[in-house]
Amino acid sequence: MSALASVSSTDDAVSELCVRSQASNLASIAEFVSGRARQSGMDENTVFDVQMAVDEACTNIIEHAYAGRGDGEVRICCYVRDADFVVRISDDGMPFDPDAVPEPRIGAPIEERDIGGLGLFFMRQLMDRVEFRAGDLSGNMVEMTKAIRGRR
Questions:
Q1: Nearest of 127, 116, 56 to residue 86 by alpha carbon
Q2: What is the mean pLDDT of residues 64-93?
Q3: pLDDT tens across 12-43, in order?
Q4: Helix count (H) and strand count (E) of the chain?
Q5: What is the C-alpha R_g of the chain?
Q6: What is this structure's pTM?
Q7: Using H for helix, E for strand and C for coil, what is the string for 9-70?
Q8: Spelled out in words, what is the top-level CATH class assigned to the domain 6-147?
Q9: Taking the domains of the chain in order of start, what are their residue ranges?
Q10: In whole angstroms, what is the distance from residue 121 CA to residue 17 CA?
């Protein structure tokens, strides 16, 4: 983990990881989120879905919110709310408006599709709920939830 990396936990259900906006931290983020998802009682297939969605969100933050600058901060908070595993990711990078991202043309022939632009689509397919908040002063936040099977 980078020099800024820190992990905190207020109890068994709430943990936070804070890292610099560097692609080299994606493996640490994946390990952190996967570990917390397993602790919540998720099966391995669901843990993989959560980890993939988080990886996509954090990659987008590094590449777009911070435009590749490695001196930004990415905060990942994981906890259980009712029967859901919740991951909240926040940054202080450039504001992000998910409504400005065009829907991918997944039905179009591959040679007619735009390169990229599938990140939000994948996140929404892998998670049960994905919500964004962006503000000039408060930074960006994405909250993603996934049901924990057997907890409902």
A1: 127
A2: 95
A3: 568 999 999 999 999 999 999 999 999 999 99
A4: 3, 6
A5: 15
A6: 0.85
A7: EEECCEEEEEEECCHHHHHHHHHHHHHHHHHCCCCHHHHHHHHHHHHHHHHHHHHHHCCCCC
A8: alpha beta
A9: 6-147
A10: 25
Residues 6+ apart with CB under 8 A from 97: 132, 134
Compute CA distances 105 → 3, 26, 109, whole Å: 40, 28, 9
Residue identified by tokens 């959560």 is 50
Count of other CB atoms within 10 angstroms of residue 152? 8
Using the 8-state DSSP alphabet, how is residue 102 labeled? P
Mean pLDDT over each residue of the chain, to the nearest integer: 86
Does the CA dihedral 95-145-58-118 come out positive or negative? negative
